[in-house]
Amino acid sequence: MWADFFNWLKANWIFVLGAVFVIPWVIKYVKSQNQALKEQSADIASDVKITENKDPEIQKKNADKITKVSHIQSTARDLATHLGVKYSDAGHWYDFLNPKGWTENDKEVLRLLKYEVNNIHLVKKLYYDVYTKSRNLTDDVNALLDEKELAELKAFYKKYKKVW
């Protein structure tokens, strides 16, 4: 029995080595290609969304799907403008040249976030889905707002038993 196995192994050693070394490599390659395809699909969906939302009618329709309250929509739009991400997410290769994307209006961002403390979940959804290129409002505010204004915002939200 063992002799038959070793004779078969001697005759087919190249296939055994191929199976041992090539199959794991093929599996790893297929997984990496699937991951790359998922990332590419997400990028394409994000680009399609930002392109569609450049049209004011489509932007309004998409915002109305989330909420029809105009002051909440304008708050999310103004936050994208005052944080500067509206200009850096425009979808062009030269967006980094626009100086409006380099600075933030921290006082206005703080005022808007304080004003919409009860509707912040809608503002975040509008900001993510309609007015920016799938950006998280919390992450942008934490990264772009100055420490003084961020501390004031966190203290204000703490009064309402909410966490920023």
Describe this structure as you would to a colleague.
- This protein is an all-alpha fold and 164 residues long.
- The protein is built from nine helices and no strands.
- It is elongated and about 85 Å long.
- It starts with a helix and ends in a 5-residue tail after the last helix.
Short description:
The protein has helices at residues 2-11, 13-52, 56-66, 70-83, 85-88, 106-115, 120-131, 137-144, 147-159.
Structural class: mainly alpha
Morphology? elongated
For the sheet with most strands, the description reads: none
Can you count the helices? 9
Mean pLDDT: 88
Classify the beta-strand content into a percent band. under 5%
The count of DSSP E runs of length 2 or more, i.e. the number of strands, is 0
Low-confidence parts, pLDDT < 50 over ≥5 residues? none
Which key features would you list for this structure?
single chain; 164 residues; mainly alpha; 9 helices; 0% strand
List strands and helices in order, with pairings.
Elements: H1 2-11, H2 13-52, H3 56-66, H4 70-83, H5 85-88, H6 106-115, H7 120-131, H8 137-144, H9 147-159
